């Protein structure tokens, strides 16, 4: 698993509240986003989102995990830009 790609996908889904929108932003398929999120959830050992057919919302763990992930993605983008 590419942890950074999974974390980036997590941040995008959380901010957009949509797997489809995150996929569009990252120019990958929705299934790629789903796989990355599943791998990250397997890694942390718990769900990061509550999902149903109409909505995606952060779990309690997802809410506590998000700020650090946002900071990591932001700092990484600063380094490469």
The N- and C-terminal alpha carbons lie at a distance of: 24 Å
What does the overall shape look like?
globular
Helicity range? over 70%
Report the total helices: 4
Round the Cα radius of gyration to an integer and report it: 12 Å
Strand arrangement across the biggest beta sheet: 1-2
Strand residues, percent: 5-15%
The helix-and-strand class reads mainly alpha
Order of helices and strands: HHHEEH
Give average pLDDT, whole number: 95
Number of strands: 2
What summary fits the major beta sheet?
A: 2 strands, antiparallel
Uncertain regions spanning at least 5 consecutive residues: none
Structural features:
81 residues; mainly alpha; 4 helices; 72% helix; 7% strand
């Amino acid at each position: 698993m590419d942890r950074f790609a999974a974390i980036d996908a997590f941040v995008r889904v959380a901010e957009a509240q949509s797997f489809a929108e995150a996929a569009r932003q990252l120019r990958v398929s929705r299934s790629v986003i789903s796989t990355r999120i599943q791998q990250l959830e397997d890694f942390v050992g718990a769900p990061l989102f509550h999902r149903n057919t109409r909505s995606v919302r952060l779990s309690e763990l997802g809410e506590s995990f998000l700020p650090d992930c946002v900071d990591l993605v932001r700092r990484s983008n600063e380094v490469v830009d």
